[in-house]
Predict the structure.
Amino acid sequence: MNYLERIKFYSTVAIFGCLWGAMEVFIGSYIHLLNIPLRGAFMAGMASVILAGGRAFANFKMSSLYIAIVAALLKMIGFGVFKLGPVAGILIEGAMAEIIFSFLGLKKSSIFLSSLVLSLEGLPHFVMTSWIMYGGSIFEAYLKVLSKVSTIFHLPKNFYFTIFFLWLSAHVIIGAFFGRISIIVVGKVKNEF
């Protein structure tokens, strides 16, 4: 990387990382405070737009990961209570986007895939953080609650499969929506610069 490319790399990482970090600190904190459903998928979707835009502006290896590191640092020092979950999510999302863009390049299909994968990241993230914070028995407690709810409302015993399918479908729809937005943003960035 020559001198001008390094300047472009570092300035892109700083600008897009700060943009993502500010979004996490302000919008993320606010929607977590309001306890909006699927908030992680929405935040990951918005992050995918920022990551794709940053990668389109400066298509250098590791730029997505460094953008995520800047965003995570801002999230750690942002106002409110420090939560490890969102910081870990930011770093995981940056790493996943980096892997996708490094192997597949910056094409419409990889941009869409990146948005989809980032929006789905919340599913294993939820399972892992629940297990770490509450232990493996938390899932037994979840199943007992679902069983009691099914008894109270006279629902089939396996209705939680339907709930899980709807939850998964909502993540896919959110990922597809932000995937389309990401493709539009990358097209604008490539046309302008």
About this structure: The CA atoms of residues 113 and 179 lie 7 Å apart.
